[in-house]
Design brief:
alpha/beta; Spore Coat Polysaccharide Biosynthesis Protein SpsA, Chain A; 2 domains; 12 helices
Length: 334
């Protein structure tokens, strides 16, 4: 089999024995006829049966799909993805997680379209699955964007939180030294995607439903993150810096991400064991002050908070943080 691959799926694995069979079965949904795909499993120092399960599938190569296995000491998902990226033979790369599922996709059509239209990043729809009866679906229209003129929309479209619904042209990542930040436990996807978006010439939003993202008890989304306040602050600074580089009109951008930061910190505080309302209030208030200081330091002109939700807007403008926290607990809590 040729070393050239059209697409590399990079799968970081740490103690995933519970989910690997479901993931392997979902690979079979890929409608692969004329392109060549490799599935790269990167074992990030698992201490369960992850290695044994993966190796049992390594001999199931066919003319279109091959499996590779890499192993490293436990260093985190970012390190595992970076190892997969530098080892990938594909013209395009797709970062997926083994506790999720790949959808029914005509992957030949996807890759051929990216190649023919010189698309560097392709975004696809997905389902967020909490339980069989609780599924939230995201779908896109078939639209293309050019970061040179659409960067503001891309920043505010809530599409930059996760990599698993995106296929990247590998050359874009290698040429611009784009990789995952290691030794962070939150938002590693964000920093990767925002740099990829800013360096890309053409991005396409596809109506394909590509992925099922499962929220389980072991996921970071369900746990309290000790460093979320500092990381959200770094995210906000990163947005502002990219906006300055791109010479964007800040109207709307700062408002959206101050709101997102506030909501994120409140929801995270609620996950802390024995958390109380006063602790949540202090942590949330301090984070917002940090964000507003960034706006002031960079001399960003800002209109009144532009959140579509009128209640959120009124409470934020009048610094009614206690009521705002209660509002988030009721309407944003997962």
């Amino acid at each position: 089999m040729s070393n050239f691959k059209d697409l590399s799926l990079i799968v970081p694995c740490y103690n995933q024995e519970k989910y690997l069979l479901r993931f392997f079965n979902s690979i079979l949904r890929l409608n692969v006829k004329n392109i060549i795909i490799e599935i790269i499993f990167v074992n990030d120092g698992s201490n369960d049966n992850t290695e044994k399960i993966i190796k049992s599938y390594l001999d199931q190569n066919n003319n279109n799909i091959s499996y590779r296995y890499l192993k490293q000491e436990n260093s985190g998902v970012s390190s595992a993805r970076n190892l997969g990226l530098v080892s990938a033979l594909g013209e395009y790369v797709w970062f997926v997680d083994p506790d999720d599922e790949i959808g029914f996709i005509d992957i030949d059509l996807v890759i051929n379209r990216m190649r023919e239209e010189d698309i560097e990043i392709l975004l696809m729809g997905y389902d967020t699955v909490r339980s069989p009866s609780s599924i939230y679906s995201i779908r896109y229209n078939n639209l293309q964007y050019f970061p040179s003129k659409d960067f503001k929309y891309l920043l505010t479209s809530h599409t930059i939180e996760s990599v698993w619904n995106k296929i990247f042209k590998k050359k874009l990542l290698i040429d611009h030294d784009i990789n995952f930040m290691e030794k962070v436990s939150f938002a590693e996807d964000f920093f990767f995607i925002i740099k990829a978006f800013s360096e890309s010439n053409k991005i396409f939003f596809s109506n394909i439903n590509s992925y099922s993202y499962y929220i389980n008890s072991n996921s970071l989304m369900g746990k309290y993150q000790n460093d979320i306040k500092n990381l959200r602050y770094k995210i906000f600074e990163c947005y502002m810096n990219y906006c300055l580089i791109q010479k964007l009109d800040f109207t709307g951008i700062t408002e959206i991400y101050i709101k997102d930061t506030f909501v994120s910190v409140v929801l995270n505080s609620m996950k802390k064991k024995d958390s109380n309302f006063f602790d949540i209030f202090l942590e949330s208030r301090d984070t917002i002050k940090q964000c507003l200081n960034v706006v002031a330091e960079k001399k960003i002109k800002q209109k009144a908070y532009g959140c579509k939700d009128k209640f959120f807007k009124i409470m934020f403008n009048f610094k009614m943080y206690s009521l705002l926290i209660i509002f988030i607990m009721i309407f944003y809590s997962i």
